[in-house]
Design goal:
It is a single chain. By secondary structure, the chain is of the alpha+beta class. It folds into two domains: about 1-30; about 45-155, NTF2-like, domain 1 (Nuclear Transport Factor 2, Chain: A), CATH 3.10.450.100. The protein has four helices and four strands. The protein has a four-stranded antiparallel β-sheet with strand order 1-2-3-4. Helix 2 (about 45-60) packs antiparallel against helix 3 (about 65-70).
Length: about 180
């Protein structure tokens, strides 16, 4: 009889500990801090940012300019730049695909740069992997990301971060 009580008490303690531990893990998951590199971006906006940024980079890599348009130009700006004009600008700027092709972009930081009305803009910087003239190179790169009415829009990815005529700088894909 005593063994049965001891077994019952131990089983009850195990259940209570598991229940307490489970609640503790769940409570911590709800209060988890935002993960780098997007710590400056509201946590609730990060999943959509990651999803749309991934699409944007994929469309740029595959030169699917018509699909990039909806991720690049927010509705208000569409009045001044049609889809056809956007595609023409992208094609004109893509002189020779064999010279440089974006393969991957790894964000490393995001800094809020503008805030007006319900629109906020960040500069997202990171490391871009390109195929250039048959070789793979890693270059520091960045793009502007705007959040307007709970939707993300992006500017072109660029590798000259300091000034238009500044040298491109190598990078590593490690998140800082």
């Amino acid at each position: 009889m005593r063994r049965e009580k001891t077994s019952f008490v131990l089983a009850l303690l195990a259940v209570l500990l598991l229940a307490r531990f489970g609640l503790h893990v769940e409570a911590n998951a709800q209060h988890e801090k935002p993960k780098k590199p997007f710590v400056s971006i509201p946590v609730e906006s990060q999943p959509k940012l990651r999803q749309r940024l991934k699409l944007f980079i994929t469309f740029q890599r595959k030169r699917q300019w018509e699909k990039m348009y909806d991720l690049s130009i927010e509705p208000i700006q569409r009045r001044s730049l049609t889809k056809e004009e956007f595609i023409k600008n992208q094609v004109d700027g893509d002189h020779n695909p064999s010279v440089s092709t974006l393969l991957v972009f790894t964000p490393q930081s995001a800094n809020l740069t503008n805030e007006y009305g319900n629109i906020r803009e960040w500069l997202i910087e990171g490391c871009a992997k390109y195929r250039r003239k048959g070789k793979v190179v890693f270059l520091k790169a960045g793009l502007n990301a705007g959040l307007s009415n709970h939707q993300w829009y992006f500017g072109n990815l660029y590798t000259r971060l300091d000034a238009v005529d500044s040298p491109e700088r190598p990078c590593t894909t490690e998140t800082k």
